[in-house]
Description:
By secondary structure, the chain is of the alpha/beta class. The protein is built from eleven helices and ten strands. Helix 2 (47-63) packs across helix 9, helix 4 (99-107) packs across helix 11 and helix 6 (169-181) crosses helix 11 (303-324).
Amino acid sequence: MFSRRYVSLQALGALALGLCPLLSRAGAQGFPSGTVRIIVPFPPGGATDVLGRVVAHQLQTLWGQSVVAEYKPGASGLLGSRQVATAPADGYTLLLASTGAILSLAASQNADANYRIERELAPVSLIAAPPYIVVVDPSVPVKNAAELIAHAKANPDKLTFGSSGVGSASHLSGALFAQMAGIRLVHVPYRGTGPAVNDLLGGQINMLFAPAQVVTQHIAAGKLRMIGTTGAERSSLFPDFPTIAEVGLAGYNSLGWFGLFAPAATPRQIVEKVSADVGKVLALPEARQRLVAVGAEPEPNAPHIFAAFVQQDIAKWLDLARRAGINLSP
Length: 330
C-alpha cells in the first residue's frame, strides 16, 4: 500500500510537470529582461557584420532592451560558434553565423554527413540566403557557364578561381561547380573576399564565386564579366543575371546563407519568440533596404524549417568535402 506521503509527493510531481510549460511560456513572454549579445564570428566589415548589426539594431528597438553585436573572429568562424555553443542556454547569447562558420563547427567534431547541428546549436531563423555571382577576368574568352565549362575542359588545371578561404562558401561553390561539370580548376584561397577581388581585377586569378556587393560595381564598369548566379532560380535582385543551372550546368545550386542560432538547450519557447521577432524586424522597410544593399533579401523562417535547411546543407557540403578531398578543419 502506498503511503500518504508518497501519494502527496507524486501529486506534487505531477503538478510541477504540469506547471513547466506554463512557466516556460511565462519566461518567454518576459524575455528579454536584460542585454542580449549577438556573436559575429568574423571580423567587422563583411556581410555577416552588416547583417548582425541590422538584426541587433532592429531587435533592440522592438524589445526595448540593449542588443549588441560582438565580434569573435578566428578559425574560420569556429571560435565564435563555440563560444555560443557553450554559453548559458537562456537566449541572452546568440550567434549570427554563415555557411562556413557552421561547417567549421561540424568539421571540428570530425563529423560525417550524419552530423546533427542540434547537438551544439539551436537553429533560430534564417536571415538571408543570397546566391553568389560567378565572374571572370575579361581576358577569359567565355560569356556563359557552358562556354566556361568547355574552356576549362580544353585547358585542364589552367583556370584559377579565388575564394575567401578554404572551406568558405565561395570555395565550396567553386568545388561543387568543378565536380558537377567534370572539370579541373585550381583553387587559390585568400584571407577574405576583398583580396581575392583585387587579384581578380589585377589578372592574378581567372574567376571568382563572389558575394554580389563586392563585384556588381565592377561588372557595371566592364572590369569583370558576369557568367551567372549560383542559385537554383534567378535572384529577384538581379533578374537579368541567368543562373549557372540555366546555361551550362543543370541542377547546380549553391547559396551562401546567414542565420541566427542559440545554444542547443535554449528553451523552445524562447527560441520560437526570438524567431518570430526576427521575422517581424526583417519585414521592416529599413531592414530590407540594408540587406538588399549587400545583395541579400530577408528570408526569415521558423526554427524547425531553418533546422531542416541547415541539416540538409551541412550534409551536402560534408559529402562534397569528402569526395573532393577538402579539409574543412580550420
